[in-house]
Design brief:
Layout (H helix, E strand, L loop, with lengths): L7 E5 L10 H12 L7 H5 L6 H9 L2 H11 L5 H21 L7 H10 L3 E6 L3 H13 L6 E4 L11 H10 L7 E5 L2 H10 L2 E5 L10 H5 L3 H18 L3 E3 L5 H9 L1
Parallel strand pairs: 1-2, 1-4, 2-3, 4-5, 5-6
Helix pairs in contact: 1-5, 3-5, 5-7
Length: 261
């Protein structure tokens, strides 16, 4: 194998390989805020998606509009103690949701098989904490997706967009330099994660948190509406600096063959 050939793909989990539309974390965040009398919009919930979940909560409350809603509902500005309380509530909700929304996204197994025929090693990383990550791992394994190495945000000094999880995958599977590695995910934070690691940074559109639709909802879109929504999501990923934006994982093997050639 030539040194320039791609030797490793690091997949994100929710919205990329399981949980079409990244529904599990979004719903849990929204319910946790509702318990405090705060109605967070789905746009507010999804904006920081991909971060470690405690960082995600902090970034949500830093949004001026949501911060104002918090102050109105609770009578005071949010504090780090509120972050801890929200995280304590989100944790069991997300574990339960990760188990509920655990179906493998169509095309994952076929994509992995094609990559393996090219001697590409498979790793996976997630912004989930240990308990929710374990639910993803079990669900993936039961459906035939078992990466050679996996890691969650609790296992590194800082989660995405810091590149430490990607570097740990590279170290564990002995693949370097960064130009031999592809990171693929479904959020702008995933794109920044890949860029900060110096690897090829790829985004997937249809199943993404940015698209935000279940598989059933997505399948009901008219051709024109689907194209319109894809264009909007693609623009977000390109603005974040993605090296490539794919509609779905079936396009990934072809993209990697292009890199190799």
């Amino acid at each position: 194998m030539a040194k320039t050939d791609i030797g490793l793909v690091v997949f994100d989990w929710a919205g990329t390989v399981i949980d079409f539309g990244c529904l599990a974390p979004a719903g849990a965040f929204q319910r946790a805020f509702q318990e405090r009398g705060v109605e967070a919009t789905m746009a507010e919930v999804r904006a920081p998606m991909g971060l470690h979940k405690k960082d995600h909560l902090r970034e949500m409350l830093r949004m001026p509009a949501l911060s104002a809603k918090w102050q109105t509902a609770t009578g005071q500005a949010w504090t780090e103690a509120d972050i801890d309380t929200l995280y304590g509530r989100v944790t069991p909700m997300q574990v339960a949701a990760a188990k509920e929304y655990s179906a493998l996204i169509p095309g994952v197994r076929e994509c992995v098989t094609a990559l393996q025929t090219m001697n590409v090693r498979i790793a996976a990383s997630t912004g989930y904490f240990h308990e929710a990550a374990d639910a993803c791992y079990a669900a993936g394994a039961s459906q035939g997706f078992e990466p050679k190495f996996r890691i969650c945000a609790d296992e590194v000094p800082g989660g995405r967009p810091k590149p430490w999880m990607i570097f740990r995958c590279m170290e564990a599977l002995d693949v370097y330099p960064p130009r031999r590695v592809v990171k693929i995910g479904d959020t702008t934070v995933d794109v920044l994660d890949g860029r900060n690691a110096g690897v090829w940074s790829v985004a997937v559109v249809d199943s993404s948190s940015e698209m935000g639709l279940s598989q059933a909802e997505f399948s009901k879109l008219s051709t024109s509406e689907r194209d319109k929504r894809r264009k909007a999501v693609r623009a977000k990923f390109e603005a974040a600096g993605a090296d490539a934006v794919l509609n779905d994982l079936s396009e990934l093997p072809h993209y990697i063959r292009g890199l190799n050639s």
